[in-house]
Design brief:
20 strands, globular, four-stranded antiparallel sheet
């Protein structure tokens, strides 16, 4: 009898230990505590993000770029959605706009300084007009069962090394069997001087995608920035190129450019994988709903600060920060392994808005 009681007690204690152990290594929903891993490598100038052991993206600040970026970005199946150039060469990709790298955040006119177009390709005589966003500090990396988080500090610096803005950005990384997502919450704070963001075309949250997600084009194009600098985007082989845009207001393809919307999809096949990248704007952002600076050649950007340009002068924003004042921008980039419908994107938009009331 005593032996039976002792055996039952041992089994009970073992069961209790097992439940406790599993709970300790798992998060809610049964996910492991390291479902989303955020790994800092200061020496390598990068922070790597993985989901269930699979690489998702990296926050990097290489000396060859004029701002920190997220690069590369992958789908849940591991397919890369970001163009390789200028960080790596891939056959068949465009090699225009060397300042388009990964996913980034900057602007063309900050007190007259161009942060958007800066790169190592800028001629020496134009360097003084350019600004650099400098990574300063990793504040808090967090891995987790539901999401990973990363808080960083940057400074927006002129050619003369004068700091115009301090930036605090909070990233949230999530993923599941068929999606990946990035939330970027960026707060810009002026220092001792007023900071003006004059309405311009090039800004604010930018993503440069792989060749397959471009819109097929039969002719070369020439694009110019606010200073009149031209860039020719050549006609290439359109094999496998099948991307198209869809905005919350129903604008499709090239018609999405220069129009407003709460969200915008870029959908297509990368090889055999159906992919939709959606950028969501937030009602609390300046200039909501944003204008879409969404080009057929693979630039996918949300620019809420370019009202005068995109409205042909009918509207004007000219955002300004008084000394020591701040402004916050909230965005989500959702990468789904499907050709997403407008209805699904609208539902996902509502979830994003609810997350940051």
């Amino acid at each position: 009898m005593r032996s039976g009681i002792a055996n039952a007690l041992v089994l009970f204690l073992f069961g209790t230990f097992l439940v406790s152990f599993v709970s300790g290594i798992s998060g809610s929903g049964g996910r492991p505590a390291d479902h989303v891993m955020v790994t800092v490598n200061e020496e390598g100038r990068r922070v790597d993000v993985s989901i269930d052991g699979k690489p998702f993206t990296s926050y990097i600040w290489p000396t060859t770029l004029k701002k920190p970026v997220l690069y590369p970005i992958r789908t849940a199946e591991g397919t890369i959605i970001t163009r390789g150039y200028p960080l790596e060469q891939r056959p068949g990709e465009r090699v225009d706009h060397p300042h388009h790298a990964g996913l980034w955040f900057n602007y063309e006119n900050v007190n007259g300084i161009d942060f958007w177009n800066n790169s190592d390709a800028i001629k020496p005589e134009n360097a003084a007009k350019m600004g650099t966003i400098v990574h300063r500090k990793i504040i808090s990396p967090k891995s987790g069962a539901e999401q990973g988080e990363l808080d960083v500090e940057m400074e927006w610096v002129t050619f003369e090394q004068r700091v115009l803005l301090k930036e605090h950005t909070h990233f949230v990384f999530r993923g599941g069997a068929d999606f990946r997502s990035i939330d970027r919450i960026t707060t810009l704070t002026a220092l001792d001087d007023k900071v003006d963001f004059k309405d311009e075309k090039d800004g604010l949250l930018g993503l440069r995608v792989v060749r397959a997600l471009e819109i097929p084009s039969d002719t070369p194009e020439v694009y110019t920035d606010a200073s009149g600098r031209p860039t020719t985007v050549a006609k290439l082989d359109n094999t496998g190129v099948n991307g198209t845009y869809l905005t919350s207001e129903g604008k499709r393809g090239n018609a999405a450019w220069g129009t407003r919307g709460r969200w915008c999809n870029l959908s297509g096949l990368i090889g055999r994988e159906p992919v939709t990248i959606t950028i969501f704007d937030h009602p609390a952002n300046p200039g909501f709903p944003t204008y879409w600076h969404a080009r057929g050649y693979g630039l996918f950007a949300a620019n809420p600060l370019g009202e005068k340009i995109f409205s042909n002068g009918k509207e004007e924003l000219n955002l300004a920060l008084a000394p020591h004042a701040s402004v916050t921008f909230r965005y989500r980039v959702l990468v789904r392994s499907e050709i997403a419908t407008a209805e699904a994107s609208e539902a996902a938009y509502k979830e994003f808005v609810a997350a940051y009331q």
